[in-house]
Specification:
Serine Threonine Protein Phosphatase 5, Tetratricopeptide repeat, 22 helices, elongated
Length: about 425
């Protein structure tokens, strides 16, 4: 084994990764691993091997090879020679498992890591585990619990001076705020994350912040601003070959184009998002895209295809026990049955939506569902009850928004105004 050869390959891999040449970096790391035995007695060679295993997992994940990435992290954990590496590997296994929808496996890895962390008392390690647990709870609809974990993690990263992890966690905290309808807090959090990302030159978190800012404006029916953020984010994601976030941005862009009456262009973006989500096997992207496509296909009058997407979403959400996504599936199915004028089935779906959305504290879905129930209620009195509830939830969302212009834009959006004026 030639030390100069190993060092040269390692430098080539690092340089390729820094230039976003991910496949080239993977080739260099693979060649490096072939030259170092797992049981190498050289500390320097062993360190290079472990770093290569970790980086292969990261790069494979960025490139959409999710199960291969998980295998790389499992091997990294198997070969880890010290507690710090074992904790790092377990966190990576948890993150990767969550990304493909294996939530129980993710929790197992995080809690195993947490047991090791408690013995060491290093704040940044505890912060990373808390982020993993918090995000997994978030995608399963346990928003309030997620916020508690993420807040503690941000504090730990700030104290330890880990700006990169602080920014990543801020992006996730913003998502939790948005899911809970606290859009003013979400926008403020994403804006700060974007500023810090640009300050330290961290492109992946900048792209995530742009995507999240766009989605917040989408929730507020400010589709022009949402589209502007997503087009900026999409250019950066494609430039850096960040395929997973590219799929999510395409989904968002597709929805915005549809709302702006550019339906065919929007539908094309959604189809691209679906293709990338299926190719990369990224569970969160897949279910969110299925939901978006089911809504758009209902609007387009393609009821059979809309039903197909909604049922897929329901099956996947049931399998992973995600209350938030299961609520979305029932809402889409309710819209489908309404188009068929099957009012009883539609109401059953929407009552399930209300139950699940309350559990997940998804206020956006709550007001939309009450509005749908108002429109199909059997009596004028019942319709008014649902309209009043929907209007009150909208006011609860709007009231905390400090930006007066943004708040007014939301309240003046035709869909929102129609509920408030009823």
């Amino acid at each position: 084994m030639n030390k100069d050869t190993l060092s040269h390959l390692f430098r080539q891999a690092t340089e390729a990764a820094s230039k976003h040449q991910y496949w080239a970096a993977l080739d260099f790391y693979t060649e490096l691993l072939a030259l170092i035995e797992p049981q190498s007695t050289s500390a320097a060679a062993q360190e290079k091997r472990l770093t290569a295993l970790r980086e292969r997992g990261r790069l494979l994940g960025l490139l959409g090879e999710q199960e291969a990435a998980l295998s790389a992290y499992v091997q990294y954990h198997r070969e880890a020679t010290d507690t710090a590496r074992r904790i790092d590997a377990l966190i990576k296994i948890g993150d990767q498992s969550r990304g493909i929808g294996w939530y129980e496996q993710a929790f197992d890895a995080y809690h195993e890591a947490l047991a090791l962390v408690e013995k060491r008392g290093i704040p940044s390690e505890r912060g990373r585990v808390l982020v993993g647990i918090g995000v997994t709870k978030l995608v399963r609809g346990r928003i309030e619990e997620a916020v508690v974990h993420l807040k503690e993690a941000i504090s730990l990263f700030e104290k330890s001076g880990d700006a990169a992890q602080q920014i990543r966690t801020m992006n996730r905290m913003g998502v939790a705020y948005a899911y809970g309808g606290q859009l003013d807090l979400a926008i403020a959090t994403f804006t700060e994350a974007l500023h810090l990302s640009r300050k330290i030159g961290q492109q992946d978190t900048a792209v995530a912040a742009l995507n999240n800012l766009g989605e917040c404006h989408q929730y507020l029916y400010d589709f022009e601003q949402a589209l502007a953020y997503h087009e900026m984010g999409l250019a950066l994601a494609q430039q850096s070959q960040l395929r997973i976030i590219e799929a999510d941005i395409l989904r968002n862009k597709g929805l915005e184009l549809c709302h702006l009456n550019q339906v065919e262009q929007g539908f094309a973006c959604l189809q691209q998002a679906l293709a990338i989500s299926q190719e990369t096997k990224h569970q969160d992207n897949l279910v969110n895209t299925l939901y978006a496509l089911s809504l758009v296909e209902i609007e387009r009058g393609n009821l059979e295809q809309a039903y197909h997407y909604a049922i897929q979403l329901k099956e996947l959400s049931t399998r992973t026990d995600s209350r938030n996504l299961l609520a979305s599936a029932h809402y889409a199915l309710g819209l489908y049955y309404r188009q068929l004028e099957d009012w009883n089935s539609a109401e059953q779906m929407w009552q399930q939506t209300l139950f699940l959305a309350h559990e997940a504290n998804n206020r956006t879905l709550l007001w939309k569902t009450h509005t749908a129930l108002a429109q199909s209620a059997a009596s004028p009195d019942l319709s008014q009850v649902h309209h009043r509830i929907a209007a009150e939830i909208i006011r609860q969302i709007a009231e905390p928004i400090r930006d007066a212009a943004l708040r007014q834009k939301f309240l003046s959006a035709p869909t929102i105004k129609a509920v408030l004026d009823n």
